[in-house]
Design a protein that fits this description.
Strand order of the largest sheet: 1-3-2-5-4
Radius of gyration: 24 Å
Helix content: 25-40%
Distance between the termini: 65 Å
Structural class: alpha/beta
Number of helices: 11
């Protein structure tokens, strides 16, 4: 009978390859992160509790082993935000959202603060994706800000990938005529503000303009908004 082949472990890059670390975190894709318990316990009360469990697994050399659900592409930037190293650079908004969700799960307060700033940095160029991401993360403030940033912008022809996960309730709040009414009321001077007027008079996604009567612009009906949402809306989270 042939001898079993030794198992080759895959370790993360610097600074998570140091053998002096006293804890190993293993991702589902088989990457092992060697970390120091003092650092991750300080950054995350969840990790702190996990490390004191009587049921914790051990590596072959006796080090504590944490098996987590996040893959290495999420764990690497998440742990870098805990370590005294350069902050990670994100290539796409999706990466920010996934790492931010993990930071929330592990109650990493400082990492959440930094990642929220990263999320907001996409507001000007991709407000619809930021809105959807904020809905998925249940960030009311960021969702409202992103919805306001949609004023004067066209909805993209193709729905952003985040829309596959956004609930119908959140989408309805974005397109509901009840929310448009928040911006159709005249100001104290009896006129609409320039920003409100511009957004209400903007064409819908199918190219149909809002109805006009005697030179005044009116918001689209509830039924038309449900079928052809416009950018003249803001989000009101429950």
């Amino acid at each position: 009978m042939s001898n079993p082949q030794p198992v080759t472990l895959t370790f993360a890059g610097v600074p998570f390859e140091n053998p002096a670390a006293d804890v190993v975190i293993r991702s589902p894709d088989g990457v092992h992160f060697r970390v120091r318990s003092a650092i991750i316990s300080e950054a995350s009360p969840v990790f702190s509790v996990m490390l004191t469990s009587d049921q914790i697994e051990r590596t072959t050399d006796g080090k504590r082993l944490l098996v987590v659900a996040e893959d290495s592409t999420v764990l690497d930037p998440l742990l870098r935000l805990c370590y005294p190293v350069t902050d990670p650079v994100f290539a796409d908004l999706k990466d920010v959202r996934l790492v931010l969700a993990a930071a929330m799960k592990y109650q990493m307060t400082e990492a959440c603060t930094l990642l929220k700033k990263q999320l907001r940095s996409y507001m000007d160029d991709q407000p619809l994706r930021v809105w959807a991401s904020a809905c998925l993360l249940r960030f009311e403030e960021e969702a409202k800000a992103a919805a306001l940033a949609l004023f004067g912008k066209e909805f993209p022809v193709k729905a952003p990938p985040e829309f596959e996960q956004v609930s119908s309730g959140d989408y309805f709040r974005l397109t509901s005529s009840e929310l448009v009414e928040m911006f159709q009321s005249p100001s104290s001077s009896g006129t609409h503000s320039p920003r409100t007027f511009r957004s209400l008079s903007k064409r819908g996604r199918n190219g149909t303009p809002c109805s006009r009567n005697s030179g005044r612009t009116h918001p689209p009906s509830r039924s038309s908004l449900a079928l052809t949402p416009t950018s003249s809306v803001v989000l009101r989270m429950e």
